[in-house]
Each structure stands twice: as structure tokens, then as C-alpha cells.
Amino acid sequence: MNDRDNTIITRKPRQALDRGSILQDAQRELAMPARRLFGKQLLTLGGLSLLTGCSLTDEKSVNQFLVAVSRLNDRAQAFLFDPHQLAPTYTEAQITRPFPFNAYYGVDEVPHVDAAAYRLQVSGLVTGKRTWTLPELYTLPHAEQITRHICVEGWSAVGRWGGTPFGDFLKRVGADTSAKYVGFKCADDYYESIDMPTALHAQTLLTFDYDGERLPAKYGFPMKLRMPTKLGYKNPKHIVEIFVTNTYPGGYWSDQGYNWFGGS
Length: 264
Ligand SMILES: Nc1nc2c(c(=O)[nH]1)N[C@H]1C(S)=C(S)[C@@H](COP(=O)(O)O)O[C@H]1N2
Ligand SMILES: [Mo]
What we know:
The protein is of the alpha+beta class. The protein has two domains: 19-80; 92-256, Sulfite Oxidase, Chain A, domain 2 (Alpha-Beta Complex), CATH 3.90.420.10. The protein has six helices and ten strands, in the order αααββαββαββαββββ. The strands form two sheets. Strands 2-1-10-5-6 form a five-stranded mixed sheet. β7 and β8 form a beta hairpin. It is globular. The termini are far apart. Mean pLDDT is 79; it is low at 1-17, 29-42, 73-81 and 259-264. Bound molecules: ligand MTE and molybdenum atom. The ligand Nc1nc2c(c(=O)[nH]1)N[C@H]1C(S)=C(S)[C@@H](COP(=O)(O)O)O[C@H]1N2 binds at residues 100-104, 151, 186, 188, 190, 218-220, 232-233, 235-238.
């Protein structure tokens, strides 16, 4: 057998093996204790889809992706994050109806936030520490997105959210955008935090609307942070406080030691 034949024979398997060994390396890295990692950021959908070779554009690729992700632990290194990578967007016809509800409790226990009494607290490393009423928030510049929400419990769905670009909001409140984290407290016992590059990502929206209507209680009234570059549980609903910090704030699921699939 000459060299040329050999090359032809091994080309495909070698590509397959490369992906396998990349995933194996990632798995090793991810299994390391969080304190040894560079930062405490969660592996992003973009990073994971690169590792798994899945495009995340339809049910089949998302399902393949979820299977691949199930082998990974839940911490990752910051280099896997590409702040310029955009998540796929969809058409109105591709919206999943009805859009699924999910929380750590049943739909009959959804918190009902009183619109008139509601105040959003903005705190931490911001020059504009203050509270916001809903009418004030509704006057902010508006953007819409139709994107896929991917839940680690094994489902994904396309939805349409409307709200204000979160990066612009952070700049408006004088956030220190060189800080590491943005944390969220919710009207239930949920809390989450995200890295600043994700907070400033072009598709990260502070949403007040779902499918052209005010966000209903089950989808997070009065607001849900929508990040198509992050898995479902990173998207806090019923937000009551937003704070900017350099101290890792954790999150409802990650603090219980759950990995990306461990929640239920
Ligand atoms: N406040 C709050 N936000 C939350 C949750 C929650 O239990 N409480 N669950 C998360 C999870 S795991 C998912 S999949 C999505 C579900 O959002 P949906 O009900 O709009 O589908 O909300 C996320 N944000
Ligand atoms: Mo989820």
C-alpha cells in the first residue's frame, strides 16, 4: 500500500477521532475542580456546539447535541466563549406552540408579581443604583427575537421574545462592564449569574413580552433574561434584582452541585 492510499483510507477515521479526542479533552478539563478553572463560567452553547459538531438548528441536531453534552460536566474555560458568535434565529412559522413551561415547581405555583407594586432593583458596580417601575422599563428601546430555548431536561422549543437589549441597559445604568459577573435575583427562590461577555452579547435581551403580548406569569412576568447562547436554566424569569459584581454569585442549579443534565 502506498502513502497515497493510506492517506485516503485514514482521512475519515482521523477526522472522527479528532472530534472524539477533542470531546475527551474537554471532558477532562470540565471534570477539574472549578477553582482550577480559568474563571467560573459555564460552557456556552456556542462552545459546546463547536465541540460536538452540532449546528443546533433543528430538533435532530439539538437532540444529538444534548446526548453529547450529557457526557460533559458543567464548568468550562472562558476560551470556549466566542462573544461574536450568534445563535440561529427562526421564522414565525417555526415557533413551537404552545411553548413549554418549566421551573423547579409546577405551573400552579408560579409567582404572581403585582405589576403596580413591582420595582426592579439595580445594584452593585453601577453608577445608576436605583429602582425601575415597569412603565419606565417599557419605554426602553425595543428588540425582538425568535430563537431556540434548549433545556437540559431534554427538550427544546422555538419562541418569540421582545424586550430591550441587555448590554444597552447595562450601559444606561452605568454598569462597570469590566466587572466579571451580572447576577439576578428572582421573585421565586431562583437566582442566576452570567459572565459579562454574555451580558453584553447582541442577542441577550431583557424581555417583557412573549409572542407580541406581555410576558405571562408562567413565562416569567414581569421579565425574563433571554439568552439564546445559553441553556434554558441560565435564563432567569421573574427578575427582581440585577447586580454587577466581581464576586462569583453562583446559580440555583449550579450551587446544588447539579451538572448540566443533573437537575431532574
Ligand atoms: N425564576 C426562575 N427562572 C427560571 C426557572 C425557575 O424555576 N425560576 N427555570 C429555568 C429553566 S430550567 C428553564 S428551562 C426556563 C423555562 O422557561 P419557560 O417556562 O419560559 O419555558 O426557565 C429558567 N428560568
Ligand atoms: Mo431548563
